[in-house]
Design goal:
Layout: H1 25-37, H2 55-68, E1 72-76, H3 79-89, E2 97-100, H4 107-113, E3 118-121, H5 133-139, E4 144-150, H6 159-169, E5 172-176, E6 184-185, E7 188-189, E8 196-200, E9 213-217, H7 220-230, H8 260-291, E10 297-299, E11 313-317, H9 319-322, H10 326-336, E12 350-352, H11 362-365, H12 392-401, E13 402-405, H13 414-429
Parallel strand pairs: 2-3, 2-4, 4-5, 5-8
Antiparallel strand pairs: 1-9, 6-7, 8-9, 10-11, 11-13, 12-13
The structure holds pyridoxal-5'-phosphate.
């Protein structure tokens, strides 16, 4: 008689996990207030006092800057827009090289492509999964202009080492902190560790307003250029007397503007961030302690002098100890559990790896991004390498050892977490039932 649910046994848990929904009455009231005002957005794309947006947008920016200890905060309509604006503001030009992690959401790398720059992928740290300073250094050439670091899963990058390398070579550091709002590195907030930081406010993140993002920087000049790019730069240059050729670089603007509705929601959400982060950390502490007892599972460690805010919780799986593959183990654990309410279609929140290393995506494999003639890859002056094997640590983690889950999201209770722990133990205890099966 089969015991494991995957073989027809009884599940550990049939009931859905509670909905992950950070929106409450405060957000509802804020949206009603904005709707009542009739001003759903208050940006004007020419030189005018409304160039900087409406009341809610400007209030969000002030509150965000104060909360994270940044000189400037610039609200945008997504972190993707924020990353694009950041690359533009740094003056990156076609043919330049930008070093980036391959283990991140795809926009961290396309930010380079949209300005005609070449993403150069460096490997990640085996224990923390952020860019590895040694690998970064080995990828620097005379064409390198910037490093896009990613605080992946909610842990800040190795800022001491990477910032030192960047300073030595005169490179910008753009910090993609979409997954790490509230995380700290030596007492400073993720997002404020490089030259420019970019937070996300999309539906999946710690706090959200549907879609949105916030850029922070301490540099007045970068902040000004970010605000120009956000709102049709080209249309205000004349009025601002900006006309010297070197001032026009990347001053083709976009509409990356956030509406008053989203800003009003984001302001409420920001007030709740600390509470959500504390809950995630408490839940992970409990899960990690319990799951660490299972011989084939090793919860990831946190960088010294840093805090992790757990956008996802990484676990390392040892197939030699388990005697079965990671894929099969995860599939069996998923079969024991239920999806999350409101997100039933996403299935049980346990996965193998995160995203396929970005250089294996078709656009890099075929070097086709804009148009059909290979731009911007055809501008590369150095050997372009997007071959399998380029980042062995990333590939080993992704294809063999890393598991990620999101069971720690609020409002998970101890009972919910206990079901998860029971499911892992059950699969461990009955893994001989799985021998010979396919993942
Ligand atoms: C979510 C995410 C983004 C993109 O955020 P959007 O607001 O959806 O554009 C970028 N980078 C990372 C690492 C992310 O997790």
């Amino acid at each position: 008689m089969a015991v494991l649910a995957i073989n027809g046994g009884e599940k550990v848990r049939e009931k859905l996990f509670p909905a992950y929904n950070t929106i409450g009455i405060e957000e509802e009231e804020a949206v009603i207030r904005v709707l009542g005002s009739g001003k759903l957005s208050n940006f004007l794309g020419t030189w005018h006092s409304d160039f900087y947006g409406g009341k809610e947008v400007q209030a969000l920016e002030e509150e965000w800057a104060a909360c994270f200890g940044a000189r400037h905060a610039i609200a945008v309509n997504s972190a993707t827009s924020g990353l694009y604006a950041a690359v533009g503001a740094c003056g990156i030009s076609p043919g330049d090289e930008v070093i980036v992690s391959p283990y991140t959401m795809s926009a961290s790398a396309t930010a380079a492509l949209v300005y005609g720059a070449i993403p150069v992928f460096a490997d990640i740290e085996p224990e923390f999964f952020c860019l590895d300073p040694h690998s970064v250094e080995s990828r620097i050439t005379s064409k390198t202009k910037a490093i896009i670091v990613v605080d992946i899963f909610g842990l800040p990058y190795d800022a001491d080492a990477i910032n030192t390398i960047a300073r030595r070579h005169g490179l910008f550091v753009i910090e993609d902190c979409a997954q790490a709002p509230g995380a700290k590195y030596q007492g400073r907030f993720a997002g404020t560790l490089g030259d420019i930081g970019v937070y996300s406010l999309n539906y999946h993140k710690h706090i959200h307003c549907g879609e949105g993002g916030v850029i922070v920087t301490d540099d007045d000049q970068l902040a000004w250029r970010l605000r120009l790019i956000r709102n049709h730069a080209e249309a205000v240059l004349d009025a601002k007397g900006i006309k010297r050729p070197e001032e026009l670089v990347n001053m083709v603007g976009f509409n990356y503007r956030m509406t008053e509705l989203e800003a009003s929601v984001a302001r409420c959400q920001l007030k709740k961030l600390d509470g959500f982060v504390a809950e995630r950390q408490k839940n992970v502490a409990y899960l990690a302690k319990e799951l660490a007892q299972i011989p084939c599972i090793e919860p990831a460690v946190v960088r010294p002098d840093s805090t992790h805010v757990y956008y996802v919780h990484p676990l390392l799986f040892d197939k030699n100890i388990a005697g079965i593959s990671r894929g099969l183990f995860a599939k069996a654990v998923r079969a024991e559990l239920a999806p999350t309410e409101l997100r039933e279609k996403e299935g049980v929140q346990l996965g193998c790896g995160y995203v396929k290393p970005l250089y294996l995506q078709p656009i890099y494999q075929h070097r086709i991004a804009f148009g059909s003639n290979g731009y911007p890859f055809n501008l590369a002056q150095n050997n372009l390498n997007y071959e399998k094997g380029l980042c062995p640590v990333t590939e080993q983690l992704h294809f063999e050892t890393l598991m990620t889950h999101e069971f720690m999201r609020p409002p998970a209770t101890k009972e919910d977490l206990d079901d998860v722990i029971r499911a892992f133990w059950k699969v461990w205890g009955h893994r001989d039932e799985l021998c010979g099966q396919e993942a």
